[in-house]
Specification:
- By secondary structure, the chain is of the alpha/beta class.
- The strands form 5 sheets. Strands 1-2-3-4-6-9-11-15-16-19-20-21-22-23-24 form a 15-stranded mixed sheet. It has a 3-stranded parallel sheet with strand order 8-10-14. A two-stranded parallel sheet has the order 5-7.
- Strand 23 and strand 24 form a beta hairpin.
- The C terminus is likely disordered.
Length: about 500
């Protein structure tokens, strides 16, 4: 075998071209469409192979040029070349590969703002969707533009994966996902803008979506909007909620109130939802600000913050049937103290988890009866860990608890947990705490470091004592030694 390979190489035989078309198409799918088309000059065998590649990747960044010419002229020339290439590729693709255009596995389109209004970019989307791709990825690299996918009716009957980056979402699209893409299973929305009036009900509806990810999508207004996710078959949810939006000159506070339900007629959560991840961005920057009162008129930013806190229990309640839940970014917030007497004590800073639990009966947190794994990341657990104890009261079946970079008290808790907490958390098998030392400690005296380490160990022992289980502490930098703390002994790993 080795000898024949050596003789073939010596004779200049092209063994790669001897591979069947299906393997060559798979190879060409790993590179961009521009590179795939360029292989047509290799030999007669490769002249028409690019026409049957099951993946089309159009990216205008491949046509950027450098040189001594003015920047505006370079950009115009690059865009003209990209436009001509995209048109020719989508027109001639499949012309020599069979009687009819072959179906696509993936269609990707990535464009930037530069001279975007000079052409109708929607024609590339229409032609790409006519090729019946199984996966569609549309990305706008900078700024804002509106990809009006609703105008592409009747959509694509074969699409199972849809990802939209930095585009404007129209209600006509999000409310008709089931009609446009009847077999859609994976929906990924990143840095998108909701296009609707303030506080208008915005709906993302699909009867087939199983995996949904919404990262940093927002409404560019100082007012918030309500987004209802209607997905009866939803199994996995990843949600990142920003508390701000920016324009050229300013940054404003804003938020989106999300709800997740199984169908349009009832507010019950999706019965198939098994895993959920909810992360709130920039809570420390906005929710911890003390309100400014002028003539006893409430600060509008503070009012929006309170409206956001009131929306969280309903959002968390949407995941009450999940077996795995991750909550991140719930640090602390300034709230109005109930029953205050002195004006100076009207507002108080509390952990967001505690603020959620302190709300009235109408907004109370439900019981997570199926929850087995809970991850709290960058959350404030309170000076006496009361926020942690109270959260555990709502998770009777919890087995694994992970605390990642959460704010723990500096001293031992002065208040014990409720006497019956041990019974509620009786199923706990593991408590893992990932911590990160303050870099400023390197300049501190050794006595201070030892005292701080002792306090940290005592806090861990308190958690182990109350939960009657072993607590494992892991440093983030992995340079220090991990250790375990139990309520009756200390074990070094």
């Amino acid at each position: 075998m080795e000898g024949s390979g050596t003789r073939a190489a010596a004779a200049g035989e092209d063994r790669l071209s001897a591979l069947p078309d299906c393997l060559l198409h798979t190879i060409l799918s790993r590179i961009t469409s521009q590179q795939a088309v360029q292989t047509c000059v290799l030999s007669r065998r490769w002249r028409h192979l690019w026409r049957g590649v099951p993946c089309i990747d159009l990216d205008d960044s491949e046509y950027r040029s450098t040189g001594d010419l003015p920047r505006r002229y370079r950009e115009e020339t690059a865009w003209d070349r990209f436009e001509e290439f995209a048109d020719n590729l989508l027109i001639h693709r499949g012309a020599g590969a069979g009687a009819s255009p072959l179906e696509l596995d993936t269609f990707r389109l990535c464009v930037a703002d530069a001279y975007l209004m000079r052409t109708n970019y929607l024609r590339w989307l229409r032609r790409g969707i006519k090729l019946s791709p199984a996966a569609l990825h549309v990305r706008h690299r900078s700024g804002r533009c509106r990809f009006d996918l609703y105008s592409l009716s009747p959509g694509c009957r074969r699409l199972t994966r849809l990802r939209l980056d930095n585009v404007t979402l129209a209600k006509e699209l999000t409310e008709q996902l089931g009609a446009l893409f009847p077999v859609l299973e994976d929906l990924d929305l990143r840095d998108c803008q909701y296009y609707c009036s303030s506080w208008m009900r915005f709906q993302i509806a699909s009867g087939t979506v199983k995996n949904l990810a919404i990262d940093n999508c927002r409404h560019d207004s100082s007012d918030g909007i309500a987004v209802a996710i209607v997905a009866p078959r939803l199994a996995s949810l990843r949600l990142t909620v920003p508390l701000y939006y920016s324009d050229v000159h300013h940054t404003y506070t804003s938020f989106t109130a999300y709800t997740v339900q199984g169908d349009g007629g009832a507010a019950a959560p999706p019965p198939s939802l098994a895993a959920a991840s909810i992360r709130v961005v920039d809570t420390g920057r906005y929710l911890e600000k003390w309100p400014q009162l002028e003539y006893n008129v409430m600060d509008p930013t503070f009012a929006r913050n309170m409206a956001f806190l009131e929306s969280l229990p309903k959002l968390l309640g949407s995941a009450s049937g999940a077996s795995r839940l991750e909550l991140s970014g719930l640090r602390s917030a300034v709230v109005e103290k109930k029953g205050y007497v002195v004006l100076a004590e009207r507002f108080v800073s509390v952990p967001i988890l505690q603020a959620i639990l302190d709300q009235d009966e109408q907004h109370q947190l439900p019981v997570f009866g199926n929850l087995r794994r809970l991850v709290l990341g960058e959350c404030d657990l309170g000076d006496d860990l009361q926020a942690l104890w109270r959260i555990l009261e709502h998770t009777p079946a919890l087995e694994n608890l992970y605390l990642r970079h959460c704010k723990l008290p500096d001293y031992r808790a002065t208040k014990r947990a409720r006497n019956w907490l041990g019974a509620v958390a009786s199923n706990l098998k593991l408590v893992e705490i990932e911590y990160q030392d303050d870099p400023r400690l390197a300049a501190m005296p050794e006595e201070y470091k030892e005292e701080r380490a002792r306090r940290f160990y005592e806090v861990l022992w308190d958690i182990s004592r109350e939960l009657r289980t072993t607590v494992k502490a892991i440093p983030s930098d992995h340079q220090q030694t991990s250790f375990c703390v139990t309520f009756n002994q200390h074990v070094q790993l």
